[in-house]
Amino acid sequence: GRGDYAKRRPQRQSLRVSTGKRGRAGRSSRGSLKRRDRAGEKEAKEAAAIERRTVSLPDGPLTVAELAEIIDEKPVAVIKFMMTNLGVMAAMTQSLDPATCVAVVEGFGKIVGGDEDEYDDEDEDYDEDSALAVGTVFDEDDPEDLVERPPVITIMGHVDHGKTSLLDAIRSTSVVSGEAGGITQAISAYQVKHNGAPITFIDTPGHAAFTDMRERGANITDIVILVVAADDGVMQQTADSIVCARQAGVPLIVAINKCDLETADVNRVKSDLTQYDVLTEDLGGEVLFSEVSAKQGTGLDDLLDKIMLQAEVEDLKANPDCDAQGIVIEARVEKGLGTVATTLIKRGTVRVGDVFVAGATSGKVRALIATDGKTRLKEAGPSTPVNVVGFEGIPEAGDMLVVAPDEQMARELAESRARIARERESASYQSNLLQSVGSIFSGEAMKERRE
C-alpha cells in the first residue's frame, strides 16, 4: 500500500506546485462564481428572514390581544414589555394607538411592513395623546355612562392685568375670607359654586407651565379666560395667551378688567383683540366678553353666567364610575402630611385607599383634602381639584395620576418609568457630549489648518 502512495504522491505535489497562469485564473473564476452564489444565498436568506420578521398592521387602533396575535406573542408578554420597556400600563382588552403598536412591534424585534412614511405621519398625529406620551391606555367611554361635569377654567393674561385679583374676587364671593390654618398659601386650583353649579378654576403660573403641560398630553382646561386690563389693552403676554388657547383648541372668554378706572377704554381693547382674530359678540364674533372690576367686585356674576353658557355649548361630560385618572397640577411637601399633590380628576372617582401611579412615582391615597386645605373627603369625581396625600416620591406637574390594580404593579411601573427617563437623559447627555467633543476637535483642526 505504501508503494502505491509513494507513486501517487509526486503527482499531488506537482499539482500543488504548478503555477501556470491558466490554472490560477481558472480557479479564481470558479471561486468567484462560488462566492457570488454564496452572496446571493446570503441575500436571499436575509430577505427571507426580514420577510419572516415583517408584520403588517391594520389601520386604526388594535387591542393588546389582537396585537399579540399579529406578532405571535402571548398577551401577557406584550403587557409586561409595555410596562417594563415603555412605562405604559395596559389591559388585554384595551386599544392601543398606532404609534404604541409600532413601538411594541419593533420592541419584539419585528419590522413594520407597509409604507414607512405612512407610519411616521401617524406617529406625529398621535404624539400628544399617544399612550407612549401619557403612560397609560385610555378606554373609550360608553356614551350611556357619561354624565355632565363642571367646566375647568384657566385664567390667563398679561402680568399686572389682575389675574390673581380676579381669582381672589371670584373666590371671595363663594369662600369665607380669612381662613385660619389649612394649606392655602398659593392655591393652584379650587371650585366655586354659581347658582348651585360648580365651576373649577385653575391658576396657571405663567404660560410656560401651561404649554409644558399641554405638550405632555395633559390638556387640563375647557375654557380659557383672557384677562385684559381696560386701561392697558392687549400686551405681549395677552397675545401669547391667545396662541396658547388656540393651540389647545379651547374657547376664549374675554374678561376686561379694571373697568372702574377713569382711563379705562373698553372699545380700544375690543378693537385691539380683532387684530388677533378675537371677535367679541357685539362686533359680530362668537367670543363672549364681560366687563369686570376685580377691585370693586362688579361684573363677576355676569362673567360666571358667561362661563356656564360657554360650558353648556361645550357639552362637557365624563364617566364617574371607572378607575380614576387625573392630572397633577402641582406637588409640594407639607409638614405632617408628606408629599401633597393638587390633582384635577379628569374621569372616574378617586377614593381613599386607592393605589395609583403618577409619572415615575406611585403610592396609596392616605387622604383626600379639599382645596380649602381643611375638609377631608372620602372621594372626588370628575373635574374636581383635590389634594392627594400618600405619594412615595414627588410627582411633576402635568403627570397623569392613574389608579392601578395593585401596589406591586404600581411600584414596578413607577420604577420602569424612572429607569426609562434616566436612560433617555443619559442618551441625550451622551449624544450632546459627543457633539461637543466633535465640535472641539473639528475646531482644533480648523485652527491648525489656518496656522
UniProtKB/TrEMBL annotation:
PANTHER family per record: TR-TYPE G DOMAIN-CONTAINING PROTEIN (PTHR43381:SF5), TRANSLATION INITIATION FACTOR IF-2-RELATED (PTHR43381)
Subcellular location, record wording: Plastid, Chloroplast
InterPro entries per UniProt: EF-G-like_DII, IF2_II, P-loop_NTPase, Small_GTP-bd, T_Tr_GTP-bd_dom, TF_IF2_bacterial-like, TIF_IF2, Transl_B-barrel_sf
Major site of localization recorded for this protein: plastid
Organism (species): Pseudictyota dubia
Tr-type G domain location: 148-317
Protein name from the UniProt record: Translation initiation factor IF-2, chloroplastic
Record's GO cellular component terms: chloroplast
Biased composition regions of type Basic residues, renumbered to the chain: 19-37
UniProt lineage: Eukaryota, Sar, Stramenopiles, Ochrophyta, Bacillariophyta
UniProt feature, compositional bias: Basic and acidic residues: 38-47
Single GO MF descriptor: translation initiation factor activity
Described function: One of the essential components for the initiation of protein synthesis. Protects formylmethionyl-tRNA from spontaneous hydrolysis and promotes its binding to the 30S ribosomal subunits. Also involved in the hydrolysis of GTP during the formation of the 70S ribosomal complex.
Stored Pfam families: EF-G_D2, GTP_EFTU
Residue numbers spanned by region Disordered: 1-47
Keywords: GTP-binding, Initiation factor, Nucleotide-binding, Protein biosynthesis
Family: Belongs to the TRAFAC class translation factor GTPase superfamily. Classic translation factor GTPase family. IF-2 subfamily.
